[in-house]
Structures are given as structure tokens and as C-alpha cells.
Amino acid sequence: MRRKDREISRQEAWRIVEESPWGTIAMVEPDGAPYCVTVNLAREDEKIYFHCATAGHKLDCLRVHPAVCISCVSEAESLPGKLTMSYRSAILRGTAHEVVDEDEKIHALTLLAEAHDPISLSRLESALRKYLPKTGVWRIDIVDITGKHNPGD
């Protein structure tokens, strides 16, 4: 990291991931071109989960090139008159794996619901019965995480 004065601890970087409403996953298309997509994330230990369809361009990319980079931003605010922004961000690198085990899929979808829609947890079981076969789940095993913070002073 070039700006060591803005670097934050690994623990604080994970906190940013948990506070971020989404993350942007960068990957490589089968032909080698760059591609990225924004998804809802849930964390467990050093793993990140996201849900998706069971087919599509993102999955075509991940099946050929499973190495990914994720960007999460939990705070970003323009500071008029200061020529800077206040922000808190984290960058994660890891390897994507399609989750095929039904118990792990249910666990991951429960983590996602807890993180993004806890009010609907009472409806989760019926939704899982209806949509589980049509829902894709991927796990990213994180190998590196860094975080950065600019308080804007």
C-alpha cells in the first residue's frame, strides 16, 4: 500500500466489509478481458458468500478464472473545499468456489439474510423451499485483505 499513513488493521478492514451494503467483485472473462459486478456479501471467518442465478456471464467467468478481487466501501463522502474525500475501504483477494453442498448453501443464504434483511428471517425457510434449486451460491476463500481510511482532516 502506497499510503501507509492511511492503512488500517486487518481487523478494521474486516469491519468495513461487514458494514458495506455491497461489494464489487473484479474477475476475468473467459477471453481474458476484465469484468466486475456488484453483489451483496456476507462474511464468515475468512470466507465471503454471495448469491446469484445458477447461470450467467459472472458464473462463466468464475468457472474459468476463479481468482477474484473484491472492493468494499463502507463510507465515502466528498469534502467540499478540501480537494479530498473521507472514506473507509477494504480490498480482498481470494478464490471463488461454487457451493454445491445444500447445507452450506442454506447456511450461506441464512448469513446473507441476517446481514441484509434480518426482518425477513421468519420467511426464509419457506423461501428456501421454493427457491433453493434456482439459487446459486458462491464462496470466496480470502487469502489477503487490506484496508484504508481517510478521515479527511
Question: Explain this structure to me?
Answer:
The protein has helices at residues 10-19, 57-64, 102-116, 121-131, and strands at residues 7-8, 23-28, 34-39, 42-44, 47-52, 67-79, 84-98, 136-150. It has 153 residues and is an alpha+beta fold. Strands 1, 2, 3, 4, 5, 6, 7 and 8 form an eight-stranded antiparallel sheet that branches. A hairpin with a 4-residue loop joins strand 6 (67-79) and strand 7 (84-98). The radius of gyration is 17 Å and the shape is globular. It starts with 6 loop residues before the first strand and ends with a strand.
Summarize the model shown.
The chain contains 4 helices and 8 strands, in the order E-H-E-E-E-E-H-E-E-H-H-E.
How are the SSEs placed, and which strands pair?
Elements lengths: L6 E2 L1 H10 L3 E6 L5 E6 L2 E3 L2 E6 L4 H8 L2 E13 L4 E15 L3 H15 L4 H11 L4 E15 L3
List keywords for this structure.
single chain; 153 residues; alpha+beta; eight-stranded antiparallel sheet; 4 helices; globular
Class by helix and strand content?
alpha+beta
Count of runs of 4 or more consecutive helical residues: 4
Query: Kindly state the mean pLDDT as a whole number?
Result: 92
Estimated share of beta-strand residues: 35-45%
| Gap from first CA to last CA | 20 Å
Give a short account of the largest sheet: 8 strands, antiparallel
Uncertain regions spanning at least 5 consecutive residues = none
| Helicity range | 25-40%
Cα-atom radius of gyration: 17 Å
Number of strands: 8
User: What is the H-and-E element order?
Assistant: EHEEEEHEEHHE
Shape: globular
